[in-house]
Protein 1
Amino acid sequence: MCYYNDFMKKRILLLLTFIITISLFNNSITSAESPKNYLKGEFYSSVKDHFLIATEKMTDSRFEKTVIVMLESDQNGAWGLTINKRLGTMPIALLVDPSLNSSEEREKLFKINVPIFWGGPVDVKTIFIMHSTEYQSETTKNYGNISISQDYNILLDIAENKGPEKSLVIFGYSGWGSGQLEGEMERDHWILSDIDLDIAFDKDSNTKWNEAFKNSFIKI
């Protein structure tokens, strides 16, 4: 019991530290809320299943030199996951329910660190595991050549080298209301490119924007 209490204190302290870090990342630049009055653009269906790449005309500092994997886009809005804003690393032990494992297993999970990425300013406490499609769990949803899972099992499988071949652990997502993203694209704040899995799952965030931008094109 004493070990469990010590573990929980350590877990809470580290989680609070990380939550403060990610909150500062959001709030030190701009508010996470969408603008109340934004230019609505005309909907088009070519955004989904592409990289969304910020141009030099991007005025929102949260998204400067940002690359986003666009997972959904329709007339009601759009959302995706930013993949090139690395926050640091975190022990897998902090990402799973501590009651699922024995004290020895928890101690082992504390020694296994994974890179953590900022997915966007919305729901920054929500975890998305973006991964290659050969891995499936009960929560897995497939989006073209990319899958998303949101359960503890995939994290435990990653810790045991039984998880997907490629994966990113992402906090939060990027979302737009109806016509909002289209309006930003009409002002040339964003361009598109085909999703490149090597770029998407590269742990080195510093090269992703340049590589994605090289393959970009203007929407049709």
Protein 2
Amino acid sequence: MTTEGTFIWASRMPSADGAFIDLATRWIGDSEPDFVTHIWAGFERLKQIATAFDKRDLERSITQLLEAAIDDVVPGEAPYYVQHGPYERETMLSPPAQPPAYDLAFVLRGDPRVMWPAEAKVLTSTGALADYLADVREQYLTCRYAPFSPSGAMVSYLLKGDADELLENITRRLAVDFSETTPVDPRRPHRSTVHERVVPAGKFYPTPFRCHHIVLGFHGLGRH
């Protein structure tokens, strides 16, 4: 939208050249610790304001309320906002294909193409990881997800089992060691792994890619 308030209709967004991606990468790198902090603060807020979720659609039910809780803790002056279900049009195929959509993402107000995504998975045990690992390997590491970002998150909604055991299973199944995680809080089950991504020919998407593995425990929260 222009400063005069006139909407501009275009067949596609402007090209994401190397300069654009370099700026997006640097901004996300600077903001990444804040995004992680907001997720944890939102989770603590969620535990205060909601204790029941709809098990017919549990992942979306939790994510919808988690988004609102995160929004409560993001400073009003922040240059980004949190959104449930934003679309990634950079990597969409030709119509009638639908663009990928993120469970959650922090979106840059000045250019909504720039997003830091967080994919959520309900885990009923520490070993049920097929869908979780598929998102890492087939979405993040192919650049279908987070094309403009050097990092992103996988958020587990763990219903049963030990968070540390889950994290060990994740690193073993991904066959990669955990790396230093920022911000560091030993009380929280949060680690990260670093991977080389497969960047499509002619694209300037950032690699390596850091994947945050954040485990939110929902053992004691009721579900209807």
Protein 3
Amino acid sequence: MLAALALVALIGAAVGVTAAMTATVLERRLEAGLLVAIGAPRGHVVLFFLSEAALLGLVGGIFGGLGGLAGGRLLGSGALGVAVPWMPQLLPFAALLGLLVAAVASLLPVVRAWSSTRRRS
């Protein structure tokens, strides 16, 4: 049951990141076009958007992991009466998962924007 809940949360996070990145790319389309117009290779512009998403995913994964550790401990002791150990070794996994979800979910909007600007030029 917990694995199914985790999968649904992961899919929801990916959909949210895709929507946010689509909005970001649409808002900054002129900025990206200006970068290309002054000589930046399109690949660098794509890499710029993807690295921004990956960095945000990494930071989100760290804060989400810390929140999960603290929330699990509070919920375990308060609601369930069970001592939940503090396991900071899970933080790198949460950070990596946040990075991967953000980068993969951002691929479609960034590549779609890149290919649409490519057709126009």
